[in-house]
Design brief:
The complex is a heterodimer. Chain A has 23 helices and 15 strands. By secondary structure, chain A is an alpha/beta fold. Chain A has a five-stranded mixed beta sheet with strand order 2-1-3-14-6. In chain A, strands 8-9-7-10 form a four-stranded mixed beta sheet, with helices on both faces. Chain A has a two-stranded antiparallel ribbon with strand order 4-5. In chain A, α3 runs antiparallel to α17. The longest helix of chain A is centred in the first third of the chain and has 33 residues. Chain A is globular, with a radius of gyration of 26 Å. The relative contact order of chain A is 0.15. Chain B has 13 helices and no strands. In chain B, α8 packs across α10. The N and C termini of chain B lie far apart (71 Å). Chains A and B meet through α1, α4, α5, α13 and α20 of A and α2 and α12 of B.
């Protein structure tokens, strides 16, 4: 028995060796197979042909599908899969049913529960190329990563052929959404499907109380009015901060993921820009440091600690509970706080424009457009043109209006929708003109390749400043050092090209201010 | 007259082959080995390969076409302050929480050795936290220690003052909440192992010691604990290895904040790979961590092996 065991041990060792050799062979052959020349990542759809006929974007999209079917390039019943966030199900699924009925195709929804998972799944698809997804609905600032990973198709020629009416005509998107929700390095890689310009909400009942007006005037020597500048805003929040009455001055994100929002708004309205023309970071400049010092003071003096340690949902709990006087977040906060089912302050919510900074008598507002959603088309999908046609149809002036009016996480983005009755009903007539003005002053998140990394490093340092762990100037200097490393690693030349293009997506008022301040001479 | 001729064959039959001990053993082992190769070895080789190149999906090249960085990623990891901080923080978390879990688990195990009314029901209650999904435990503790949460409410009532403590705003208290949640969830694991171990200890040496006049404490310290040592060792090693990978509670409770004050190694690796997409760098870090943990485990289990040999 012992002998037998010894032999068996020897044999096992040999077996391991044999298995190792076999494994090596398998790995070797896999690697060799993998190293075979890959299908070239097709450039954008070439050789533009005549524009597709039709009076509206929706009509042209449907005609495009018909033409593809007539040409035998598309079969009825073919399945296309759209990856999107679960919060958009109500916007998308009813539209899919209608589209499938009109086209005879089978577009299906693949909802993902957590936003970051969409990024991970999309980049997985860039590597493994299963072809399981045809359309992605992702954060706007992921377009660069998906384009650089070769995952999504350049849609510029489709734009020419199909004309989605994004930047012209009576149905155009509110500028600058037409540019920064669709474009990377000057090419159209996406179709915008959302407006996430941050919006300000406050307690109208407290603001309009007569005794408050007198007290405010006594204290500050000016009439109580909605603040237009950040300086006025800081005083206004301080005035309404009443911890003894269980109501704090404000909730503005200072936490791990959106800590940049308020700082960036102050910073950009002062003429700040994240980078110079060569992608050297320029945030520890006087305008960056002073903006952060002011915001840190506000956070640490007049906000709940959860502003620093909570997450995005805090605004959606504390403001409707009546625990804060002012909050800013996505436009949906207004709708949410006016719903008596969620809110103790329904009927008491006012909306106001995001404050700005005065330059030689001219007020410049800079409204952060925080994330936002855009559609893009997978290179590895079944039929890129059919996928594009759906996106155009879904975001069209009529279909889009119906889809966005349904409760979901997509907000209105075409200019005429701001006057539509259905939207007035959904958002409240008071918010819409303010949201429109905010959108016109909206500037994008950092949307370069590696955007997640740039933003995360910024948030990390800003949160430390808000928590009192780092001096504001140091937090910004540390961010700059990290950003330099990121830029060098990802390739400075490419990033410079992308940044120069991205800057064109900023609102005209901010670009004019940069010019006046002598920034970006090129 | 028919003559039986031996049948000619090209080689030994399958049955004859399988009758050979070596071949039979090979045939038994091979499927498992191949499975192991596919599930473990090949991914490990790919991770090693990735750690030697400079690749991110967003670079627009396939991973096998990425330029070699050789040991560049490893050198970068060693110079990465955030990595060292996360490593030390994680080690500290493991040290504190596993120690507490062991002490509490041992105390509970000793208590449950006695017979008392409702013991069976209470045993189930004690084991209950271990069965909860981590996301539930994380959320419960997150809510407990919120600014306006029950813990601050109780403190306020006790002290008679409304000065809520910002648990997540300070690194030590935020880490404390994570440790508390971990201890709450995983003490039952220690209890379960130690309780089983105590139950399996031979009664005779304990009775002999008691007969010879030893106190209960002496019996515990000089008789039971030495006998229990291998079980204690295994429980601590398993739990420490598990705790070293802590991600879930940190992710739910603090997301690593404020700043990186509570960031664990796994959370940092997750950020690097899933959020920043720096897969090569994350691979190098993962390999280094694996080597480190393997070395520590080796050192930790050596006494056990020596004892087994003896």
């Amino acid at each position: 028995m012992g002998k037998g065991l010894e032999r068996l041990q020897l044999t096992r060792r040999e077996a391991l060796k044999s298995a190792a050799a076999a494994g090596g062979l398998v790995l070797g052959s896999s690697l060799i197979a993998a190293c075979q020349p890959q299908a070239t990542r097709a450039p954008s759809p070439q050789s533009p042909v005549a524009r597709v006929a039709g009076a509206t974007p929706e009509e042209r999209a449907l005609n495009g599908i018909k033409a593809l079917k007539d040409a035998g390039k598309l079969k009825g019943g073919e399945t296309f899969t759209i990856m999107h966030h679960s919060g958009q199900r109500n916007n998308i699924v009813p539209a899919l049913e209608e589209w499938n009925r009109l086209t005879g195709l089978n577009f299906v929804s693949a909802a993902v529960g957590a936003e970051p998972d969409i990024y991970t799944k999309a980049l997985n698809e860039a590597v493994v190329r299963t072809g399981n997804f045809d359309i992605f609905l992702t954060f706007v600032n992921w377009i660069a990563d998906m384009a650089e990973a070769g995952l999504i198709v350049d849609l510029t020629d489709f734009y020419s052929r199909y004309d989605p009416e994004v930047d012209h005509g009576p149905n155009a998107y509110v500028p600058p959404l037409d540019r920064f929700t669709t474009t990377y390095k000057g090419r159209r890689y996406a179709v915008g499907a959302d407006d996430d310009a941050f919006s300000c909400f406050y307690r109208k009942d407290l603001m309009n109380a007569p005794e408050e007006a007198k007290r405010f005037e006594d204290k500050y020597g000016r009439k109580l009015a909605l603040p237009t500048t950040w300086k006025e805003f800081d005083e206004w929040v301080a005035f309404f901060d009443r911890p003894d009455q269980g109501i704090r001055g404000a909730h503005m994100y200072a936490e791990r993921y959106f800590a940049y929002t308020a700082w960036a708004s102050r910073f950009v309205s002062r003429g700040g820009a994240y980078f110079n023309d060569n992608m050297d970071p320029t945030i520890s400049t006087p305008e960056g440091v002073s903006a952060l010092e002011e915001q840190v003071r506000l956070v640490r003096t007049h906000m709940l600690p959860e502003a620093v340690t909570g997450d995005w949902t805090v605004a959606y709990s504390r403001f409707p509970q009546g625990a804060v006087f002012f909050a800013w977040a996505w436009p949906s906060l207004g709708k949410f706080s006016e719903d008596p089912k969620n809110s103790k302050i329904a009927g008491k919510v006012g909306a106001m424009a995001v404050p700005g900074t005065t330059h030689n008598g001219q007020l410049v507002r800079a409204v952060p457009h925080v994330v936002g959603w855009s559609f893009s088309v997978s290179r590895y999908g079944k039929n890129t043109e059919a996928a594009y046609a759906f996106i155009q149809w879904f975001t069209g002036p009529k279909t889009g209006l119906d889809a966005i009016a349904r409760v979901g996480t997509l907000d209105l983005f075409r200019k005429p929708w701001f006057d539509a009755e259905v939207m007035k009903k959904a958002y409240g007539a008071e918010l819409l003109p303010i949201l429109l003005e905010g959108t016109q002053n909206a500037f994008p998140d950092i949307s370069l390749r590696g955007a997640n990394e740039y933003l995360d490093k910024l948030n990390l340092n800003l949160q430390q400043a808000f928590a009192g762990k780092k001096a504001p100037a140091q937090a910004l200097k540390d961010t700059e050092a990290e950003w330099q490393k990121t830029t060098d690693r990802l390739g400075r030349l490419g990033q410079v090209e992308a940044w120069r293009s991205e800057r064109q997506g900023y609102p005209a008022t901010i670009r004019d201010l940069w010019k006046k301040l002598g920034k970006f001479p090129s | 007259m028919a003559v039986d001729r031996p049948r000619r064959s090209a080689g030994p039959s399958l049955a004859a082959l399988l009758n050979q001990e070596r071949v039979f053993a090979l045939a038994l082992i091979a499927p498992l080995q191949f499975l192991l190769w596919f599930l473990l070895i090949i991914p490990t080789i790919i991770v090693l390969y990735l750690s030697l190149v400079n690749w991110q999906p967003i670079m627009g090249v396939d991973w096998w076409q990425a330029p070699f960085a050789w040991l560049g990623n490893y050198a970068r990891v060693l110079q990465d302050r955030r990595f060292w901080e996360a490593l030390l923080r994680t080690a500290g978390l493991v040290g504190v929480s596993v120690s507490l879990e062991f002490l509490l688990g041992l105390g509970l195990a000793l208590l449950f050795r006695q017979d008392f009314r409702g013991k069976r029901l209470l045993t189930s209650v004690v084991l209950y936290p271990m069965m909860l999904p981590w996301v539930v435990v994380g959320l419960v503790f997150f809510l407990l220690f919120l600014d306006k949460g029950p813990v601050n409410y109780l403190i306020g009532r006790l002290l008679g003052a409304d000065a809520p403590f910002d648990w997540y705003g300070h690194s030590i208290s935020a880490l404390g909440v994570i440790v508390l949640a971990d201890v709450w969830q995983w003490t039952p694991f220690m209890f379960l192992i130690l309780y089983s171990g105590l139950g399996a200890l031979p009664k005779e040496p304990q009775e002999a010691a008691l007969t010879l006049g030893a106190s209960r404490w002496q019996v515990f310290r000089l008789v039971m604990l030495p006998l229990l040592r291998p079980i204690v060792f295994i429980a601590i090693v398993i739990r420490a290895l598990e705790a070293f990978k802590i991600f879930d509670l940190v992710f739910i409770i603090t997301r690593g904040g404020p700043g990186t004050a509570t960031e664990s190694l796994s959370l940092y690796l997750y950020l690097l790979s899933a959020v920043y997409g720096q897969l090569s760098y994350a691979a190098a870090m993962a390999v280094l961590v694996l080597v480190l943990v393997a070395m520590l485990t080796r050192v930790a289990t050596k006494p056990l092996e020596q004892r087994a040999i003896r």
